[in-house]
Amino acid sequence: MKTKTHLRRKSLIDKRFQLGAAGTLVAIQLLTFLAAFLAASWLYLFVLDRRMVCNHNAAFLSHLGVASAIGIALLVYWCIRRTHAIAGPIYKTRQLLQAAAGGKLPGRSVRFRKRDCFQGLAEDLSACLDYIGTLQTERQRLLLALQDLRAATCLEEPADQEIERCLNETITCLEGGTV
């Protein structure tokens, strides 16, 4: 009996970005709650002229605290879910570019998850990686042709030595070395 492997989704892909965005929104929300509290206090003290019972003021503070805690929790959850759609494609792009820098190109076109942002970037990245693959293939073909030409040259005349020197320099450059 085969066991199904469950794909574990990682909500925090880029902790610094995602938690930073959530922290900014939490700070904005706390300032909004503080402004609401100050406005309500001003209303109780000056407009209603202290005609409210003291228990109502204490209950108001506890209700405002509970509402703000629930609001902050929902805001952090929403922010992490939303930034996941932004951080995911950036993370995948980084992995693909690191692999391409190491010479490993993907065998198929690049795709992001259905709900990710920057869907157009996947097509551009695929086109770029395909072009790099074409360049690598062309480079290998050219390198083989130059190596065959070097093997076919005669070393008896000075002009042939100059040709061989130029070929060796070209092959060294194509192999990734320096002249």
Kindly summarize this structure in a few lines.
With 179 residues, this protein is mainly α. The protein contains 4 helices and no strands.
Sum up the structure in keywords:
mainly alpha, 4 helices, 0% strand, rod-shaped
Describe this protein's structure.
This protein is an all-alpha fold and about 180 residues long. It has a domain at about 10-90. The protein has helices at about 15-45, 55-100, 120-150, 160-175. The protein is rod-shaped and about 105 Å long. The model has no long low-confidence stretch (mean pLDDT about 75).
What is the arithmetic mean of pLDDT?
77
Give the terminus-to-terminus CA distance.
Answer: 60 Å
Poorly predicted runs are none
Largest pleated sheet: none
Q: Rg, please?
A: 32 Å
Oligomer: single chain
- What is the H-and-E element order? HHHH
Number of strands: 0
Look at the helices and sheets and give the structural class: mainly alpha
Annotate the secondary structure layout.
Blueprint: H1 15-47, H2 54-101, H3 119-152, H4 158-174
Helix pairs in contact: 1-2, 3-4
